[in-house]
Design a protein that fits this description.
164 residues, 3-stranded antiparallel β-sheet, globular
Length: 164
């Protein structure tokens, strides 16, 4: 019998985050793929903090006392990370308490919008079909854009970690 384990943040990224992200961008928007993707992107902070904290501190030139301080760093670098955090937490808790990062307060702030050919916004999200959007500050924010920014942040960070 072969046994596979996740030994560090890179393993989690390659075996969990990347497949969830690739499925999310390759298929029409769905709550399942959006929530799986948001949760795995947000949970990267736990994996990095617990298993690769020293690497993250060296690369980021910052000390992280808590998982929250690491995520605060991510949000400073990638403002779209706030949306990923809120969708991840809303998918678990339904209602967000006073600790939300955006104007999103409830999972009902997340919806699937269907665009016909030529109706989507050029350069943002999918050209046609269903995409996941979040209502924030009276506007709809594309989850595609937020997910890409956070995914690329983690990908760039991990590329600077030593290979085990």
């Amino acid at each position: 019998m072969e046994r596979v384990t996740l030994k560090d943040a890179r393993d989690y990224f390659e075996r969990v985050v990347n497949p969830n992200y690739q499925e999310f961008i390759a298929t029409p928007g769905s709550f399942r793929t959006a929530f799986n993707m948001a949760l795995s992107l947000f949970n990267m902070r736990d994996w990095v903090f617990v298993l690769n904290k020293a690497d993250a501190e060296r690369v980021c030139c910052e000390t992280f006392a808590t998982k929250r301080s690491l995520w605060d760093h991510v949000q400073r670098k990638i403002p779209e990370a706030r949306s990923i955090r809120d969708v991840a937490n809303a998918s678990k808790h339904v209602v967000l308490d006073e600790h939300h990062s955006t104007s999103m307060t409830h999972i009902a702030n997340t919806s699937i919008a269907s665009f016909g050919y030529g109706e989507g916004t050029y350069g943002v999200g999918r050209f046609a079909g269903a995409t996941v959007v979040m209502a924030q500050d009276g506007e709809e924010v594309s989850m595609d854009k937020c997910a890409a920014a956070v995914f690329e942040f983690w990908e760039r960070l991990l590329a600077k970690f030593p290979v085990a």
